[in-house]
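Standup notes
- DV: blocked on the single-chain target, sequence here:
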Amino acid sequence: VAAAAALDCPDGGAAKGAVPPAGHEAWCEREVDGKSVRHGRWTRWYDGTTQRWHETDYRDGHKHGRTVSWYANGQKSEEGEYDQDLKNGRWSTFSEDGQKRSEGEFRRGKRDGTWVQFHDNGQKREETTYVDDEEDGQHRAWHDNGQLAVEGRYLKGDKDGVWTTFDRDGTKLAEEEWKDGSRVEKAEAGSCGEGLVAKGAAPPDGDEQWCEKPDGRKHGHWTKWHGKEAAAAILQEGEFIDGKKEGRFVENWNTGRVKEEIDFLAGKREGDFVAWWKNGQKRVEGEYWKNKRQGVWMWWYDDGQKKTEGEYKTGDKQGKWEGYYPNGEREYEEGYKDDLRHGDAEYWYDDGSLKDQGRWEEGKKQGRWVHVDEAGKREVVVYEDDVPKGKKTSRRVLFRPPEED
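- DV (later): unblocked, structure below
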């Protein structure tokens, strides 16, 4: 493997890590208030190659400036800028073949203005207007043949006014009135559109209602309620096309608050995923590409405190993952490669003191590990392929399970 270019660190900073072939991660550091923090460019390469994987600029310990990620084939997967750890300016994502998948603007960490998503064939898939990270304004979605699929407006995150859905050939499927995120009128027999049959019933006669084609495939709007009581809140709703989920699906708590929002494309998860606690605090946020987790995912406790942050690549954990206790103290920092723990790792108690420190290689502990018990007593164990050499440790290290949706 040919050597990668050495880092040129700004403001008298020091180069850390190692570039290929000696290593696969390199960055710049400098002292700020007595602490060593990243300052300058951080680069991570694919193991055993000079192909860059991630590259981000830092300023005094904060992400600040350009950031780019690449696939193993050299194509960009994501590109944007940070301003003091917050996404800012234009961000774009791409497929492995170089096709643009999404594009839009952030303003201080929040989506702002028009955001566009694309089908694999390059056709526009969705176009949505955002204000302060909420959908607010015109929304359109298209089939991959370019025909309009959905048209309507959002008002402060809720559907508002007339929403219309269309078949792949341009035939109107349904037209509905929305206010404050709820349909004003529930579908009745004959309202599904030409060639479709109304099925099920709304409360109090039933708890599920949809339209379907003569062959039994759901087609058009589908709604599920929290029971058959007349005042039952909507549990889930969304659109089906030829029996497959399409577009935004929303699940609600029985209080009426939104629980989850997720986008579908031809029955598979594709696009943004957001979930909230029952009290309205955000619980998890991330993105799906072709039904697999992709990019940065974040979880929070029900009081708004960050719980976990890390990155996925086509469904596998990759790169640095961080966890936090409910009090805000760091719980762990560890690396991943192809969904296996890989690289240096540190774990802390909830008072901020060190608990464990060592290195993982492809999911196994390797080399020198240090454990500090709650009384401050240190224990050192050397591992080879996850097996302690010499004296066995008196303590088994337990780790948190992976986060779920």
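- Follow-up: Residues 393-398 have pLDDT under 50 and may be disordered.
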